[in-house]
Design a protein that fits this description.
By secondary structure, the protein is an alpha/beta fold. The protein has three domains: about 220 residues, Rossmann fold (3-Layer(aba) Sandwich); about 30 residues, no CATH class; about 100 residues, no CATH class. It is built from 14 helices and 13 strands. β6 and β7 form a beta hairpin. α11 runs parallel beside α14. The radius of gyration is 51 Å and the shape is rod-shaped. About 5% of the residues have low confidence. Keywords: Membrane, Transmembrane, Transmembrane helix.
């Protein structure tokens, strides 16, 4: 009985410990999910830490209008179809991590602002096309999850005057502006590095464009943290409370890459300064390579040695053989056979009949005078008739044949 009681106590203790561990893990995961903002969507329907559901629901209370229109198409298409955007006194709010637009979007946005409207953009990475069009420069920096409490966003305005800051343990954005021309650009806020990250641009002295390089101020976790809702009220207080129409953009916050619309991949690459310089440099290097390597490169061809007349070598070899035996007629006969074979193979002449016609043809082809050829053939005829030959006659006959071989063409 006592043993059973001990077993029951041990089992209950193990179950309680297991439940405690599981509960702690669940709470830890829940807290981690609540504070994790590394994947912020900034969507008006997202109720997670990185969503913008709370900010979207507060918009009607910040304006006299009680309705907010949600846009789910590119700005250029919306501006083309919605006639209200072509009038003045409208407010358009765009919150996204990275801003991927097209040239048509930028052109439509600037046209919209020039008509006396207001455009509020909150993003970590602004589109270079917009930078170029409005004449400002941004310095991009990484966003990271910050744990210790520090100033997240600070607002300043000498006209109000306003100087207040907000903080929370969430995502920090370090990007900021380099403002050179202050004639139409006014700094309204600073990031945790005390660098300007919130500006107001007056466009054509009619409309205003607000750019905030800290979209996390619209996130649920930031807005609902302590009294940070005042930060949302501060940055949107510059927009007209009596705006005729209020638009919330839910298109660009869903774009993770450049749109495949009315521009090519080449145009996308060329809009980024660093990529543009890299492409031009690669193109210049390719052209230089083509110009330099276009010259023909080939190994030096060695001079071809002159063709040796093997007939002379053969005659010399045979001559040495028969001359040592003093068989002059046989040696001369071999020389005659070799000579006639040379004429047949070199000039394709029939050597059966050595008449005047043969002499003319051989002289024309070999470029040797007819008199020399005639003398040589007479010596051949005489040797064949006599059937004998002295050493002096053999020497003269050898010299004649050698001269023929040397001078022939």
């Amino acid at each position: 009985m006592k043993n059973k009681l001990v077993y029951i106590v041990v089992i209950v203790a193990v179950l309680l410990i297991t439940l405690a561990v599981v509960s702690g893990n669940l709470n830890g995961n829940k807290e981690e999910q609540t504070t994790d903002m590394t994947k912020s969507s900034f969507s008006s329907k997202d109720k997670k830490a990185g969503g913008a559901y709370a900010a979207f629901k507060l918009l009607p209370h910040l304006f006299n209008r009680n309705s907010v229109q949600v846009v789910t198409k590119p700005f250029a298409k919306t501006f083309e179809k919605d006639s209200e955007l072509k009038f003045r006194n409208n407010a358009y709010i765009l919150v996204t991590n990275k801003m991927f637009t097209t040239e048509n979007d930028i052109s439509a946005m600037l046209d919209y602002v020039s008509r006396g409207n207001e455009l509020f953009i909150a993003t970590n990475t602004i589109d270079p096309l917009l930078e170029k069009a409005l004449g400002f420069v941004t310095v991009e920096s990484n966003s990271y999850q910050h744990q210790p409490k520090s100033v997240t966003q600070r607002y300043v305005d000498a006209a109000v005057p306003l100087d207040t800051s907000f903080r929370y343990n969430g995502m920090f954005s370090g990007s900021y502006f380099k403002v050179k021309d202050t004639s139409h650009i006014e700094v309204l806020g600073y990031n945790y590095k005390n660098k300007p990250n919130f500006i107001r641009i007056t466009y054509h002295q009619k409309g205003h464009l607000y750019i905030l390089l800290n979209p996390y101020t619209f996130s649920n976790y930031f807005v609902l943290h302590q009294h940070n809702v005042a930060a949302l009220e501060t940055q949107l207080s510059y927009l007209d409370n009596d705006a005729g129409n209020i638009y919330w953009d839910d298109f660009y916050n869903s774009q993770n890459s450049a749109q495949s619309g009315d521009f090519s991949e080449w145009q996308v690459l060329m809009r980024y300064p660093s990529m543009r310089w890299a492409l031009w440099l690669a193109l210049i290097l390719a052209l230089l390579y083509v110009l330099v390597e276009s010259k023909r490169r080939q190994r030096i061809i060695p001079d071809k040695p002159a063709f040796n007349n093997t007939s002379l070598e053969f005659v010399d070899a045979i001559g040495q053989l028969y001359y040592q035996q003093h068989n002059n007629y046989n040696l001369a006969h071999k020389m005659i056979i070799h000579l006639l074979e040379f004429v047949r193979s070199r000039y394709y002449l029939n050597t059966n009949v050595l008449n005047d016609e043969f002499i003319v043809a051989l002289s024309r082809k070999s470029m040797i005078a007819e008199t020399e050829i005639r003398t040589l053939l007479q010596m051949i005829h005489q040797i064949q008739l006599d059937a004998e030959l002295s050493d002096a006659g053999l020497q003269e006959f050898y010299n004649r044949i050698q001269q023929f071989y040397l001078n022939t063409k």
